[in-house]
UniProtKB/TrEMBL annotation:
Enzyme class, spelled out: transferase
Name this protein carries in UniProt: Trifunctional enzyme subunit beta, mitochondrial
Domain of life assignment: Eukaryota
PROSITE patterns for the chain: THIOLASE_1, THIOLASE_2, THIOLASE_3
UniProt keyword Mitochondrion present: yes
Pfam families: Thiolase_C, Thiolase_N
Function description: Mitochondrial trifunctional enzyme catalyzes the last three of the four reactions of the mitochondrial beta-oxidation pathway. The mitochondrial beta-oxidation pathway is the major energy-producing process in tissues and is performed through four consecutive reactions breaking down fatty acids into acetyl-CoA. Among the enzymes involved in this pathway, the trifunctional enzyme exhibits specificity for long-chain fatty acids.
Record has Acyltransferase as a keyword: yes
Organism from which the protein derives: Xenopus laevis
Main localisation: endoplasmic reticulum
Alphabetically ordered keywords of this record: Acetylation, Acyltransferase, Endoplasmic reticulum, Fatty acid metabolism, Lipid metabolism, Membrane, Mitochondrion, Mitochondrion inner membrane, Mitochondrion outer membrane, Transferase, Transit peptide
Example GO biological process: fatty acid beta-oxidation
Length: 470
């Protein structure tokens, strides 16, 4: 497929291609909010309105930095405590807690439960953990939406956590089997017999990798091939990464990343902001060598998201319950979809498939969307999705659609930075995307936001966020 995509997309009309000159770092961060447009609401007869009251996150930090000596439930607990402090919601009012995570700490496999207990929630409050790669907290939120819509609950806390500073490293399978046999041995002779079977290669550890089980290919390798298939140049990728970091720095300096809560790390300093935002220059970025396909690849450390530690949490309620408790919600959580494609050649194209589906469910068009918040795994992934979305050929040949959905305007797209610059704790990013959309809608005077993300396994998510009437 990659070869076919590359050959055909190169022949697409110029209008279907994303020019590097369109990747601008200009923004309207300092401008006052404009008057919200008057559009229809997406409320549906007989369907409960579900709202997001507020959300928080710990600062997202490069793995191996200030959070290095913590554990995942420490970060998750801090996010939950921060949410309680910000919203003043009584702990006993929360009906259910759902958390997302990807690389689990074996000691706290249900990290939602351990973090909830640590944050002081009642032991009578159920909590469970979900995993769906980079859209794990998206799944946590939509699980909460489902519980409310079905009448099971009125108040949900959803969130996610990832801790890449200390990932589980296992013994080899042969060594694990030997150790289990040794544990069952009853006599000294049996133990010595088991030990005598150990060979040097048994001692080689199994390291976790950001790779597909079904293809054994790393995500970065897939991003490199995808960028090649869609003719996304190294220059375009570096320019987009520079845009992300520049916009994130402007948003950070302007105090717009208001979902962040300070975290006093025991024995260390209080962390108050993300530490991966590092605007560079094109000259510096061009010096980096390819990270995955060497020597001719275009994906580098500078145009890829980095391994990140962090946690997020949001308070979701039925609108009726929120108003009864005196809250002014941030936004409605409206229609959402999950999609799934070929995990080899279309691993990172989730947003392309999710966007038209979620727009159709909501009865909207791309032009109706005021704010786009897409997960940035790699610059090449984002730019490939934009090209795929703007291609009639791709829509017709791979999506079974008559026409393209179109590419989002970049002046509405990730204007406060994205995962390339803010960081990407796998299990926590979805909540960040939703809160960024809600805050941008209020700041910019918009009504509808579209959140989308790709995920390992060739999966993806799309959701419509509607600003709550001001």
């Amino acid at each position: 497929m990659a070869c076919m995509l590359r050959q055909t997309i190169r022949s697409l009309p110029t209008a279907c291609k994303i020019s590097s000159r369109s990747i601008s770092c200009s923004s309207h961060l300092q401008s006052p909010a404009v008057q919200a447009k008057t559009k229809k609401t997406l409320a549906k007869p007989g369907v409960k309105n579900v709202v997001i009251v507020d959300g928080v996150r710990t600062p997202f930090l490069l793995s191996g930095t200030t959070y290095a000596d913590l554990m995942p439930h420490d970060l998750a607990r801090t996010a939950l405590q921060g949410l309680l402090q910000r919203t003043n919601v009584p702990r006993e009012v929360v009906d259910y807690i759902v958390y997302g995570t990807v690389i689990q700490e074996v000691k706290t496999s249900n990290v939602a439960r351990e973090a909830a207990l640590g944050a002081g929630f009642s032991d009578k409050t159920p909590a469970h953990t979900v995993t769906m790669a980079c859209i794990s907290s998206n799944q946590a939120m939509t699980t909460g939406v489902g519980l409310i819509a079905s009448g099971q609950c009125d108040v949900i806390v959803a969130g996610g956590v990832e801790f890449m500073s200390d990932v589980p490293i296992r013994h080899s399978r042969k060594m694990r089997k030997t150790m289990l046999s040794l544990n069952k041995a009853k006599t000294l002779g049996q133990r010595l017999s088991v030990i005598s079977r150990i060979r040097p290669n048994y001692l080689a550890p199994e390291l976790p990798a950001v790779a597909e089980f079904s293809t054994s290919e790393s995500m970065g390798h897939s991003a490199d091939r995808l960028a090649a298939a869609f003719s996304v140049s190294r220059v375009e990728q570096d320019e987009y990464a520079l845009r992300s970091h520049t916009l994130a720095k402007k948003a950070q300096d302007a105090g717009l990343l208001s979902d962040i809560i300070p975290y006093k790390v025991p024995g260390r300093e209080t962390v108050e902001k993300d530490n991966g935002i590092r605007p560079s220059s094109m000259e510096q970025m061009t010096k980096l060598k390819p990270a995955f396909i060497k020597p001719h690849g275009t994906v580098t450390a500078a145009n890829s998201s980095f391994l990140t530690d962090g946690a997020s949490a949001v308070l979701i309620m039925s609108e009726e319950k929120a108003l009864a408790m005196g809250y002014k919600p941030k936004a409605y959580l409206r229609d959402f979809v999950y999609v799934s494609q070929d995990p080899k050649d279309q691993l990172l194209l989730g947003p392309t498939y999710a966007t038209p589906k979620v727009l159709e469910r909501a009865g909207l068009t791309l032009a109706d969307i005021d704010v786009f918040e897409f997960h940035e795994a790699f610059s090449g992934q984002i730019l490939s999705n934009l090209k795929a979305m703007d291609s009639d050929w791709f829509a017709q040949n791979y999506m079974g659609r008559k026409a393209k959905v179109g590419a989002p305007a970049l002046d509405k797209f990730n204007m406060w930075g994205g995962s390339l610059s803010l960081g990407h704790p796998f299990g926590a990013t979805g909540c960040r995307l939703v809160m960024a959309a809600a805050h941008r809608l209020k700041k910019e005077g918009g009504q509808y936001g579209l959140v989308a993300a790709c995920a390992a396994g060739g999966q993806g998510h799309g959701m419509i966020v509607e600003l709550y009437p001001q």
